[in-house]
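Need a sequence for this fold. Nothing fancy.
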């Protein structure tokens, strides 16, 4: 295996499952901030995992970030409905 291929395979091992990574975050405002400041977010993640993220990896982590935001927004809406419903019982 050449040096470039070896380096690339090592990079792959260090990257998380982005769905699991973002599921550790429960602060919707923080996730929205990360989503609206993608350059900063990508730079921080590259530092955290000591690797350069390829465009496909960036797209995957952005998609999973947006999915997590949607999930937390849905949960927030359901909680509000539940609270509103219990007020009228």
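Here you go.
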């Amino acid at each position: 295996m050449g040096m470039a291929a070896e380096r690339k395979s090592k990079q792959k091992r260090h990257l998380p499952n982005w769905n699991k990574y973002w599921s550790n975050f429960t602060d919707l405002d923080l996730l929205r901030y990360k989503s609206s400041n993608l350059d900063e977010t990508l730079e921080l993640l590259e530092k955290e995992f000591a690797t350069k993220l390829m465009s496909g990896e960036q797209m995957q982590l952005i998609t999973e970030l947006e999915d997590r935001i949607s999930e937390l927004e849905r949960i927030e809406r359901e909680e509000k409905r539940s609270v509103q419903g219990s007020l009228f019982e």
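For context: Helices lie at 3-14, 18-23, 28-36, 38-48, 55-87.
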